[in-house]
Amino acid sequence: MYSTMRLRPISPLQWAVWFLLPGAVLAWIVFATPHALDIALSSPFYFSDGFSLNRAPFMLFLHRVARVVPIGTAVLALVIVLRTLRARKASGGGFLDLKHLFYLLAAMLACVMLVKFLKTTTGVYCPVRVDVFGGEEPIASPTFSWSARPGHCWPSGFAGTGWCLFALYFAFRDRSALYAKTGFALALGVGLFCSVVQVIRGEHFFTHVLGTALIDWLVCASLYVLFFARDIIRAAVQKKSATAGSMTLSSFSSRKKIAAGQAAAAIGAAGVTSCRSGTK
Q1: Which helix (H) or strand (E) is 92 found in, with range?
Q2: What are φ and ψ of residue 147, in 5° steps?
Q3: pLDDT tens per residue, range 46-97
Q4: What is the pTM of this model?
Q5: Residues 66, 193: contact at Cβ < 8 Å?
């Protein structure tokens, strides 16, 4: 698989931001779900007739339109991959090489598939169906299973429409900092939009959409490391070697300056001694 871009090294801080922080927050909302916070954030949209905006025409329209962004991104990436393969080139139109394009498609697909699997197996009900808001089902934390269970509401599939675009950040990370930040901003914008729409409609609690964001981020980060593990290790080794070489050169230069200083001092001392001998 072709890769023509040099990978940027990953700092210890980035490792923490990519994995430790989101992993800790995800563990919190899974094992100590803040149900009171979920209820408080959903209550303003619940009226005497239920979540009245749930079936509002413009909400249903937004629900359909938002899907265009990730679908369009995936289709465009796939077209570029096919055209690049057909032309037998390593670069994807000057933006991404084949390996990064394959990563983009794989990461987005993995996000969608994992969220779909978890929705089917975690046994969590949506706000419109829980007893707190006039339904018949209990509000519950996600529990994991390999088999299908009723509920189908954790995490949020529609919110994942935007959060799966986190793959753009990692795909462009080695190409351009500007492109990577733009991809991250797009994921953040579409993800927040889709998340707010679902909370307003009573289709998801806050922790449902937050869980989707964290899961998709961790999937994208993990696949990036897996796809480019060899290149990441090589970049780290090269950075370490360059640092060591710089330190060695600096040390050698310092020793050279000290030796030159000592030689100058010795010459000066010899000159003084010679002058004294001549005077005598």
Answers
A1: strand 91-92
A2: -110, 160
A3: 998 899 999 889 888 888 888 888 989 889 888 888 887 777 655 545 578 8
A4: 0.83
A5: yes
